[in-house]
Amino acid sequence: MLNTSFYYRTNSLIADTFPVAQIAHEVGTPLYLYSLKRALHNYYTIKEAFDGANIQAHIHYSIKANGNLALLRGLIAAGAGMDAVSGGEIFRAITAGASPDTIVYAGVGKTMAELRYAVEQRIGWINVENRDECDLINAIAGTVGVRQRIALRLNPHIVANTIPNIATGHGGAKFGLSMNIIEDILRDKHLFPHLDFAGIHIHIGSQLHDIAETAEAVKIARDLAFRHGIKTLDIGGGFPVAYQDGDELPHPSAFAQVIAPLVNGLDVMLEPGRGIIADAGILVTEVQYIKKQDWDTFVIVDAGMTELIRPMLYEAHHSIIPLEQRSGDSERVQVVGPVCESTDVFARQVPLVNPQRGDLLAVMTAGAYGMAMASNYNARVRPAEVMISASGLAWEVARRRETWEDLIRGEV
Questions:
Q1: Is the dihedral of CA 186, 189, 195, 198 positive or negative?
Q2: Where do you find CATH 3.20.20.10 in the chain?
Q3: Cα distance between residue 87 and residue 61, in whole Å
Q4: Domain with CATH 2.40.37.10 in the chain
Q5: DSSP code of residue 167
Q6: Domain 37-274: what homologous superfamily?
Q7: More confident: 39 or 213
Q8: Is the N end or the C end of the chain the one with fewer CB atoms within 10 Å?
Q9: pLDDT class for 173, splitting at 50, 70, 90?
């Protein structure tokens, strides 16, 4: 999936202004390569879409998609707040320079230690997903001597038109609170003197294809907010990204135009992650072997499910293209990794022209939930990450490749 930051020039894949092969040869593979220029373009596209609909939305980037510090620093400098789902992500955001009052903290299983850290840091918002959280946060805030601002996450019982694994707003999901539970909490809010019940939060899933479902969820949340005099609506993220040619997806402006008449009189917060960084990153990998067996051709590369697990976990599609295009007829191959699992397959039926050992390939649209979900399974080291600057004219290693020594660091 090519765009203004990743494109071919005279048959060579370019990242902003640099041949990707040049960077790969200097840094090695596997390698994550990000364009800050593209990420900021996506951020401003969302911001301008809501500005254009007369919605002054506060955008909080969802760190779980990709928490690279260089990326966070670039987004913070552009004015983005941060959305965290763990104490570690709060720490990462603050380390990158985020002001604590611009951080939203969400998640279904926040620990006592994480909640205490969040409150002590004077975090801006905590999105609550369990009544017991109210008791814990209230007690911690009383001890710390603050009044903590919270939003109650509503589960609107809407099944989003997306991959079932990433739908979060239906009745069977672990996320959020049913309407009757939120009504009970708000009726009893006098029992929580150290909490400021300032917002309602919804997020029905990622990679949303249907604007109508989002609008329905927003309307349910809006009516709840109005009933209780609440002025802030956090509508989450979910802006979809095209993972293959031909994907027809709604633009952020389409979401904004539909939502605009529903949120008049409310402050709005957004939490995009994938929509900002997915198509601003690629995974570069080198072909190790070509294996022809029975009726299949296997292209075995040096990246695998330890670097990018989405295809194996969700059956997610990522286009795979060569860094150097060749002329000739393509053949359909399986691109597979080296990990000792039968599921370690990036894709089947990938069209490649005369694949050879030493070729470099790019797994496209890999900026979100790639490195963030990478692991050390099979005692494999996690890859380096390279960031191309906002100008597109310079690059740097934003995270060095791990070493074997890193694998045992901390063990007794």
A1: positive
A2: 37-274
A3: 16
A4: 6-35+278-408
A5: B
A6: Alanine racemase (3.20.20.10)
A7: 39
A8: C
A9: low
For 100, which DSSP code? G
CATH superfamily of 6-35+278-408: Lyase, Ornithine Decarboxylase; Chain A, domain 1 (2.40.37.10)
> What pLDDT sits at residue 246?
78
Q: Cβ(274)–Cβ(42) under 8 Å?
A: no
Closest CA to 185 of 224, 156, 223: 224
Place of tokens 């720490």: 91
Radius of gyration for the alpha carbons in the chain, expressed in angstroms and rounded: 22
Cα 189 from chain centre? 33
d(CA 276, CA 38): 8
Q: How many CB atoms lie within 10 A of CB 303?
A: 28
What lies within 8 Å, CB to CB, of 143 at 6+ separation is none
Q: From the candidates 113, 265, 340, 379, which is the catalytic residue?
A: 340
**Kind of pairing between the strands at 148-153 and 125-128:** parallel
- The pLDDT of residue 239 is 87
Alpha carbon distance 283, 224 (integer Å):
43
pLDDT at site 244: 86
Given a contact cutoff of 8 angstroms between Cβ atoms, the answer to whether 157 and 168 are in contact is no
Q: Average pLDDT of the chain?
A: 93
49-58, 236-245, 262-271, 355-364: segment of lowest average pLDDT: 236-245
> Tens digits of per-residue pLDDT, 105-143?
999 999 999 999 999 999 999 999 999 999 999 999 999
Does residue 134 have an active-site annotation?
no
- Phi-psi region at 125: left, alpha or beta (left = phi > 0; alpha = psi -120 to 50): beta
pTM beyond 0.85: the answer is yes
Q: What dihedral angle (degrees, nearest 10) is formed by the CA atoms of 58, 59, 60, 63? A: 180
Residue carrying structure tokens 């008449």: 261
